[in-house]
Amino acid sequence: MLIVTTIPMVYIGEPLDADGHSEWIVQGPTKAKVLNAPGYPSPVPKPSGHRAYEIKETEKTGMGVFAKRDIKRGELIFAERPLLVSPSNIAHMTDSLPSGYDMRTMQLIIMHEWEKKLEFALSRMTPENQEAFKALANNHKEDGSGPLLGICRTNAYGIEELYDGDERNVATSYAAVLKTGSRINHSCMPNVDHSFSIPSFSFKFHATLDIKAGEQLFFSYCGTDQSKAERHAELAPYGVVCDCPACEHATPETDQLRKDYRNRVKEYTFKISQWVLGSGMIEESRIDEVLKFRGALIKEGLHMTSDYKALVLMIQLFYEKLGLKEKAQPFKEEYVRYKLK
Q1: Considering only CA atoms, which of 135, 146, 163, 123 is closest in space to residue 34?
Q2: Helices (DSSP H) in 124-236: which residue ranges?
Q3: Cis amide prior to 98 (ω within 30 degrees)
Q4: Angle at the Cα of 290 from the Cα atoms of 284 and 295, rounded to 5 degrees
Q5: Res 209: pLDDT
Q6: Which CATH entry fits the domain spanning 2-219: 3.50.50.60, 2.170.270.10, 3.60.20.30, 3.90.1150.10?
Q7: What is the per-residue pLDDT across 41-97, written as a single tens digit (0 to 9) for each?
Q8: C-alpha angle 50/51/54, rounded to 5°?
Q9: Where in the chain are the domains?
């Protein structure tokens, strides 16, 4: 049975939590999992230093989030509790549907019923949070979605760490709409990533690359290991037409790189480990091909991935094996910066 609850709970006569509250449409047992989670309730993590971001108008994509100062890779940019958390797949969550209708009619009925649930959840928010939610973009105005559902479908982040039962799948997962995080626009060359903390019931946004003051923050709404055509097909339901450098300058070669790079990293990792662990002499030139591949990943904006981090470590170990500490040092420093997160 679905309930609507406020996280953290609000108690009569007590002030609101300084870190804010989320409205959550949830199955009762899943709420209990959060309330009983080790460390709950914890405060929302706080970044160090001066505020790192601001929200302002972009040239092409409405509002966006920009760096106010230089941000280092691995740095916590901000963390926030969602405005709203709700089940990802509403078709599995609507009670007592009538029978005998065609699929399209059933979809419209489901969306209409879910809009009413969203209206109730929104009515529980503070006026400030209601205003922030309704100010978000809606790219689903022509498909039968109500205005609130359209905002959810346009702006929600999936929450990998939160699900009903024992296994996360399409029917058990949750998604969240955020006041700031949902303002982050898409790029196939992202520079931020996020994770969800159950004890603080908050999203944490980290820099995956160094970001200069004035640059826009980007998150990828689609899989980055796909061709341009595949990425654009995945983005189409969001109403997003990406013109990032990776899409603007896409070629058959860059498409193939994106589809193959994870397997190629595994192959190079295995090769280098054999060289490093072996007892024979190693020619320095053996690493040239790997360095060229690394350069291609950087140019394509794939150096924010864990696969790239593994490659950097292996290059460091290769140079250390040869006793070339000066050449190993930049890769050692780069790897350490990846571990900051």
Answers
A1: 163
A2: 127-134, 147-155, 228-235
A3: no
A4: 120
A5: 92
A6: 2.170.270.10
A7: 999 999 998 999 999 999 888 899 999 999 999 899 999 999 999 999 887 655 566
A8: 150
A9: 2-219, 251-338
